[in-house]
Amino acid sequence: MNEVYLAGRGLASALGPDLESGLTALSRGGVTPIRFEVASGFAWPYYAIADEDPDWLARAARITHRVATESGALAGPRTGPLFLGSSSLDMGVLEQHHEFRGDYQTFAETVAGWIDWRGPVFTVSTACTSGMNAVLSARMLIRHSHTDHALVLGMELRNRITVGGFGGMQLLSPTGAQPLGQARNGLVLGEAMAALHLSSQPSRWRLAGGANVVDGRDPAGTVPSAVVAMCQQALAESGLSPTDIDLIKPQAAGGLANDATEARALRQVFNPLPELVSFKAAIGHTLGAAGPAELALLDYAQDTSLNAPLAEQAPKRVRHVLASILGFGGGHTAVVLEDCGK
Amino acid sequence: MTTWHTQAHVLVDPLPADWREQLVAHLGRRPRRIGAWAELALYGARLCLDAAKEQTLPAGAQLRVASLIGPLDSVRAMTEQAKTGLPMPFTFMQSQPSQMLAALSLYLVWQGDARFTLCRDKQAALQLAQQECGPAGMLFGWVEEDRRTEWWRLVPSP
């Protein structure tokens, strides 16, 4: 079977329109979330991409093209599979115009058209784990030689309904994101568009393995046994043991109960617990885009040695990273990255 | 190349008028807080596992669901609610395919790799699922609300 590498990545987020500007903003202390009003009297902090074009589709197309270009995927053949991982898809345009044209796959095909992508198009929609599951699927097609490259897009662009939906469930923080913080009081959502270009051609970061575990006993919460199973399966597929992991990027969305549950479950697997890094206080919880977005930030920071913004005590040696996203609907998904340059 | 054995295949099209009552009778309770699309997925999945003579999916099996229409009825309802204020929480949840996966996990009493992955080419969707599948096989469903529910219990041949 082929090995699978991260050949390139791109990211537009509240931190900036690309990774370089994003890491620069992060190293300077990050950005302040806006107040996103979804209805009169209902507003929450929100990490927005600085692009105020009111035409949702034109804005999405422009951001998509820029991020896919940054990933390097558009410089080569555009014939591999394209995976769109998203929770809200084109909700932003549906809520504006109430025109339901096409079906559930139509939007992914529209996105493919924006970047003139000619390979097969897949939609992956598993809420917050969408983008991470898209990475796992793309990896598997390369592993089994169905293709030598694939493009994964994690997309979550602003819309009132998603913010209102989470707000209606009383999951949002009125003040700010504090992942794993003692005074955490809820999620802060954000928008992001991330592109990960995967390839069988060797490069620094290898996708060593991963796992996806759904447990529906708590459809809005983290299930400890599922976190443990996710970690154990991801490690087993990567041929690693818990002590091989140097850095963990957990979900850590800032929820009162879920953060604590996740931390307790991680301690069951990892003893001692490696350093943790979280990006949600910098870009918000970007839902279906969170997996690719946070992987892009993590890898870019490692590649450019801009570790300072990542952790108070950045580990001296990072060879293996476990990155996870836990989601709405009982999804628990992780990938393991290996730094082949070490 | 792996060959696949079909342990069971269930197609319900057209849907019987009482399919929801059948589901309640089968589960012994009415599914709570899920939309009609998720209920239809559950109905078909349960029938397929019955046909395969399995109480639930084995650990290590995978679950894949696809649909061209998906939960669009709930999405429509949600955009209507949002016109006049905030969407209702349950409608918002029902607009997410992940809630269907959670319901399948809950009512099948099963924890494992479940995903909603869609491709216009059904063969490509199935092929991807097969590449991701381990020796315990998979339950693969294609569910269109108000129309049909079709499920396969597939295992790789030894």
What is the straight-line distance between the termini of chain A?
23 Å
The CATH topology of chain B comes to Peroxisomal Thiolase, Chain A, domain 1
Tell me the name of the CATH class of chain B. Alpha Beta
Could you name the CATH homologous superfamily of the largest domain in chain A? Answer: Thiolase/Chalcone synthase
Strand neighbour order, sheet with most strands of chain A: 1-8-6-4-5
H/E element sequence of chain B: EHHEHHHEHEE
Q: From the alpha-carbon coordinates, what is the Rg of chain B to the nearest angstrom?
A: 16 Å
Can you count the beta strands of chain B? 5
Question: How many independent structural domains of chain B?
Answer: 1
Question: Unreliable runs of chain B, pLDDT <50, ≥5 residues?
Answer: none
Largest sheet data of chain A: 5 strands, mixed
How is the secondary structure organized here?
The complex is a heterodimer of chains A (342) and B (158).
Chain A: E1 5-12, H1 19-27, E2 34-39, E3 42-47, H2 56-70, E4 82-85, H3 91-97, H4 106-114, E5 121-124, H5 130-143, E6 149-156, H6 160-168, E7 189-190, E8 192-199, E9 205-214, H7 224-238, E10 247-249, H8 256-269, E11 275-276, H9 280-283, H10 290-303, E12 320-327, E13 331-339
Parallel strand pairs in A: 3-7, 4-5, 4-6, 10-11, 10-12
Antiparallel strand pairs in A: 1-8, 2-3, 6-8, 9-13, 12-13
Helix pairs in contact in A: 1-10, 7-8
Chain B: E1 4-12, H1 19-27, H2 36-51, E2 62-66, H3 72-83, H4 89-94, H5 97-107, E3 113-119, H6 122-131, E4 138-144, E5 148-156
Parallel strand pairs in B: 2-3, 2-4
Antiparallel strand pairs in B: 1-5, 4-5
Helix pairs in contact in B: 1-2, 2-5
